[in-house]
Structures are given as structure tokens and as C-alpha cells.
Amino acid sequence: MSENTSRRLWLKQTTFILAGLGLKAEAFATPVYFPDDAEDMILLNSNENAYGPSPLARKAIMEHYLKSNRYPDDYIPLLKKKIAGHWNVQPENILLGAGSSEIIGLVNLYLSSEKGNIVTAEPSYRVWNGQAEAFGLQFNRIALNKERKIDLSKMLAAIDDNTRMLYLCNPNNPTGTNVETPTLGGYAIDASKKTFVLIDEAYTEYAELDSQASLAIKIPNIVVAKTFSKIYGLAGARVGYAIAHPDTIRRLSRLQPWPDANVSVVSAAAAMASMDDHGFVSDCRDKVSQSRQLCYDAFKELSLDYIPSSTNFILFNIDKIKGDFVKQMQAKNIYVQFREHFGGKWCRVSMGTLEEMKMFCSALKSITG
Fold first, then answer.
1. b/e per residue, 273-282, with b = 16+ CB within 10 A?
2. What is the number of H-type helices and E-type strands within the chain?
3. What CA–CA distance (Å, rounded) separates 200 from 103?
4. Among 13-27, 81-95, 233-247, 256-270, which stretch is predicted with the lowest mean pLDDT?
């Protein structure tokens, strides 16, 4: 049975579960319908976990969705305690948000009381950049080094009197490269003496990198942003969090309607269950590694330049491919991202299931050939 089929089967099975809970069809509002071909799309464009949510998270979702009429007051402390225990910090070092995107947004808002610049790598994660610019912040983008890794020395040197923040995405999106934890930590400490430092750790679980949490809880100018959207497979549940010094957590929490306001009962339950599903996380990491190797083999066969990745996506060069590569892939119901980097045309492809990546590689060969 394919992964797509198994996911569709799970969705059908929920109907019987709801019936077992005593819910009838008339208890629901007008149903929401997705496009007929949505279930057949191969979505390799958003760095989602094609295998998630985990079995334990799915069970938790089904057990808690009927409690959605209640505020999550009883669940928030439990989730914060569980996260804190995982990273060997205290609950007062944790602030919850709707994905790590909210955490980054809160930091932008907090820093925007004084206009200035943000030092970031180029290329790096940009989705939040528009918000920062709307707040009056500008960007000083520092090119990656020859290994296509974050150039920490140049970024540190770029900090000036107007720098409000140094943003470090490690592993970096979209290149998938990473800086070793001790090296990054040393630079973060030095930078924190001059400005605020935000370390985005969305992909550390794929790379099996240590977190900088131990630094963040001691130094008020350092915040670590983490998410359940990636290896835990809860991108749609919107759960992320900051790890920081208690004073920093308090300052950021004042920018929310109330502390930890944007995590629901269902999302909190799913996140806690995900943290207990160690076998699922390990299995996803292994399958993503296998998928990356499938792609590497295809890229080598087709003589396409690519950047070896420690994440669930790969950036590869498509300069030699004629026509609109993204549209050609979409014609085969495969969705990827087009990027312009390093003076050329690139594609960032997220790792789907092994079956999906075999289909991607087959499509790539047919288009390139």
C-alpha cells in the first residue's frame, strides 16, 4: 500500500471513529471539499514531513478534537513542561506560538521599536522578511562561503551600531548546509554582546544537531526558535516555540494577546504525543536520508549540480534544463520550488515518501533527457 493510499485510508477511517463517538452526519456543518486531484498531488515544495503526523499524534488528535470548545489552559503548562524536560530547561524558558513563524514575528515586532538592520545570510529563509520590512527594519545580506555554508566571520563583522538582530538559520534553508554546533555557539555568544541573535533550528532534528538552548537560557540577547512543523509532521497544526532567558520570554509574551495564546487543545495534544513517538522520528530521518540518496544518484547521472543536504530538502541547479522546469513538473502533478541563487537557476525539492521520490527522479530524467 502506498503512503498516499494509507493517508487516504486513514481519513476514511476517521468517519467510522466519529460514528463510534456517537456523532451523526447532521451534527456537522456543510462539508469542505478539496479538488478531486488534491490527494494525488506530489507536494515537494514546502519542506513538510510526508509521513506525518505520527500514529501517536493522530490518536491524540482524534481523542482531543471534541474538547475544542474549551480554551487550552490545562494543556499549555503540560506542553511547556514536556518541551522543557526534552531540552533540559525550565518551563519559564519556553514561549509557545503558532509555528516558529510566530516566534520570529514576535522578535521582529519586539526589535522594531528602534529602526535598523538585520544581518542574515544570502540565501537563507526569507518568508518572514516582508513582515520585518513592514516594521521598518532593513536587511544586510551576507553571501554564503565557498562551501555554501553560513559565513559566520563575515556576518559577525557586518554587525554595526544600527544592527537590531543577527538571524542564523542552522541548518540553512534553502541550501540544507549546516555549521557545527560548537562553532555556531561561539559566534552567537560574540554577536550577542553587540546585538540580538535569533537562531532558527527548524531542521536540527533531521541533521541530529545539538540545540543552542543551553546558551539561550543564560543570555537574554539570544533566542532559539523551534517548530513541530518539520520532522514531527505537524505543519498544519501550527505549533512552535521559543527557548530563551525568562526575562526575554516575558518581554516577547507581552506581544501576544496573552502568553502562549495561539496553540489549541488539539495542537497541544498532538505535539505532546509527537514527542513520545521516538520510533516515528527515527524512521522519518532514515527514510529522508534514503530519499536524498535517490536524488543524489539521479543528479549525478544527469550531471546536475546539487548541494549535499542535512535536511529534508535539496537545492539543485537546473540551468541546463530547457523550458520552465516547475511547469513541466506540475504537468506530471509534482510540485517543487524554483529559486534564483548564485547567479543561476535552482530548484529546491522537499523529500516526499520513498515512492514519491522515485516518481520525482523518473520525471526529472524524462524532462532532462
1. bbbebeebbe
2. 14, 13
3. 10
4. 13-27
| Helix/strand/coil for 28 | coil
Write down the domain spans for the chain. Answer: 65-276
The angle at the Cα of 256, spanning 251 to 261, to the nearest 5 degrees, equals 125
Task: Domain 65-276: state its class.
Answer: alpha beta
Q: Is the backbone of residue 316 left (phi > 0), alpha (psi -120 to 50) or beta?
A: beta
pLDDT tens track for 5-37: 444 444 444 444 444 444 443 433 444 444 445
- The pLDDT tens digits for 323-352 are 999 999 999 999 999 999 999 999 999 999
Contacting residues for 276 by C-beta, under 8 A, at least 6 apart:
56
Is pTM beyond 0.70? Reply is: yes
- With CA atoms as reference, report the closest residue to 74 among 64, 62, 84: 64
What helix, strand, coil percent values describe the chain, rounded to 5? 45, 15, 40
Of 340, 358, 360, the C-alpha closest to 349 is: 360
